Amino acid sequence: MSATPAAARAVTVPNFRAAKGGARLAVVTAYDYTSARLADEAGVDAILVGDSLGMVIQGHPTSLPVTLRDVIYHTRCVVRGARRALVVADLPFMTYQESPRQAVRSAGRLVKEGGAHAVKLEGGEAVANAVRAVVAAGIPVMGHVGLTPQSVHLFGGFKVQRDGAQLLADARAVAGAGAFAVVIESVPADLGAQLTAALPVPTVGIGAGPACDAQVLVFHDLLGLYADFTPKFVKRYADLGAAAKAAIGAYAREVRDGTFPGPEHSFR
Ligand code: KIV
């Protein structure tokens, strides 16, 4: 298997990890069959069933209310649409923080019931033992340091994280515990570059600058489908929200004026 997962074959954890320092990897979130299929056919390397679904699917202001059952449900939908991308599922708030044992149990459900190939959990030194235990159970783990949204109240908001020494200690702790990749969220670009140079595994940046080995964006942000909050690091590649509103508006007008359904949409 080449270290370049951009080829047509399936992306695995070993070849994702082996891409460190090589070809950059593209990761996007998805939460259902149709969006996963679109992302997969567009050629992304990995699909993250993020607990951001609490915001973009469920309409909460944070990811905190998301349950393990929610993520299992959405992961099941996503794996049906992902033919070659690696599927990573998020461990939601309070499904792994209590103990390594709880982390193994929750991660096991994401793999066994959801069909995920790997799990992601947030935190650094404090969760290193949980990462170690989940990996020892045979489940690949993606770490997540920097702005970890499950700790939003501890940070006092969705704020850029600038404590370089702590970020380095956290990222090293999860990589040292066996994580095959580490998401780095909302840190200055020079820190993103330092962490990428320091870690032996790929860094997956979101608001962490261009030096990261991979980038991840939320599906709805990338496509302009979520208007409630757009962080600085989001680039909108399309405005599907406006296109969808225009299409639905046209449909409603045609229903009201009797143009739809026409003869071509009616049975004789
Ligand atoms: O929940 C999520 O979608 C995430 C990514 C934004 C990294 O954690």
Report what the structure shows.
- The chain is an alpha/beta fold.
- The protein is 39% helix and 13% strand.
- It folds into two domains: 13-237, TIM Barrel, CATH 3.20.20; 240-268, no CATH class.
- It has helices at residues 13-18, 33-42, 53-56, 68-81, 100-112, 128-136, 152-155, 164-176, 189-198, 219-222, 240-257; strands at 25-29, 46-49, 86-90, 118-120, 141-146, 181-185, 203-206, 214-217.
- Helix 6 (128-136) links the parallel strand 4 (118-120) and strand 5.
- Helix 2 (33-42) packs across helix 4 (68-81) and helix 5 packs across helix 6 (128-136).
- It is globular.
- The termini are far apart.
- 3-methyl-2-oxobutanoic acid is lined by residues 29, 48, 50-52, 90, 144, 183, 185, 206, 216, 218.
Describe the structure using short key phrases.
268 residues, alpha/beta, TIM Barrel, eight-stranded parallel barrel, 11 helices, disordered N terminus, binds 3-methyl-2-oxobutanoic acid
Short description:
With 268 residues, the protein is of the alpha/beta class. 39% of the residues lie in helices and 13% in strands.
CATH superfamily of the largest domain: Phosphoenolpyruvate-binding domains
Q: Report helical residue fraction.
A: 25-40%
What overall geometry do the principal axes of the alpha carbons give?
globular
Distance between the termini: 56 Å
How many distinct beta strands? 8
Query: Count of helical segments?
Result: 11
Mean pLDDT: 96
Biggest pleated-sheet summary: 8 strands, parallel, barrel
- Sequence of secondary-structure elements: HEHEHHEHEHEHHEHEEHH
Give the tally of structural domains: 2
CATH architecture of the largest domain: Alpha-Beta Barrel
- Poorly predicted segments: 1-7
Strand content: 5-15%
Radius of gyration: 20 Å
CATH class of the largest domain: Alpha Beta
Structural class: alpha/beta
CATH topology-level fold name of the largest domain: TIM Barrel
